Amino acid sequence: MTQLAEERGMPAAACLSGTGLPPAAVIDPNSEVTARQELTVVRNLLARFGSEPGLGVEAGSRYHISLYGPWGLALLASRTLRDAVEVALRYVGLAFAFGQISFEESGGEARLIFDDHELPEDVRAFLAERVLTGIQMIGRELFPTGVPFHRVTFRHQGPADTRRYREVFGVEPIFGASANVAAFDSAYLDMPLPQANEWARGTCEQLCRDLLARRQARTGVAGAVRDLLVRNPGEVPDQAAVATELFMSPRTLSRRLNEEGTSFRALLDEVRQLLSEELLDHTDMTTEQVAARLGYAEAASFIRAFRRWKGCPPQEYRARGLRARVPEPV
After folding, report:
1. Coil, helix or strand for 257?
2. pLDDT digit string (tens) for 69-119?
3. d(CA 229, CA 226)
């Protein structure tokens, strides 16, 4: 995206404005860019070039499979396109995608569907165009002749000039549709891929699993929720507020947390327990003040919760800690 901006006369630093990222970070293979930072870059691009027809298509056409690391290599090494689709969706968290991508097959047609309902409205069209174009680019790299789409639909309204869309997709997209869809003949699904290699695919899939596990442990949805719960002293947000911050509905947040083996209530309980121990161990705050800091309406509720966590009331826990820290007289 910074390359896209520079070609149009916008310096990389201006494209990255508000992200806290230096221009060198975008070419550093060891740097990581958060979703929030990427959305800031998209907004900077749109603020300057948003009137350009098919800007998201132009951005998506630059996402080649080599940029995706082990995820892309696993697709290349898959036995068939069907296998590649399964791998892609299983580890889609490693791809450059917001929203949800799903797959359907019926009536001789295969469909990749991009759900953008929970994305911020100001970037929704750009990201939908980028994702469907990215899918097209991957298809071209998996097959020498590409996977021709016979139908492409977008939920947003289209521009008067659709030339760029036709050049990339090979068909005239339908705008103002009920879903973002890239559809192709399902006969392509079981055709062998030219670079199939079971050993390479297995190795790359293991790398994908390891990367995804490390990323989720550090920055998964549960990690993001924990960060938001402790961000503002004295203000513990509820589930609806956290979901809004993460650009998703409360229902989707619950589902995503369930996929990671936890829940909002469990995370809130976990954060409250850890914070309560820190506050009791290292501050002079009263029980009432600690309760208020943790978002309890009354101290009695906090005391009951603390007894459940530690088997004793907060005052007794603090007294034990103080005794443990006071050196015995010689």
Report:
1. helix
2. 788 888 989 999 999 999 888 888 777 777 788 999 999 999 999 999 888
3. 5
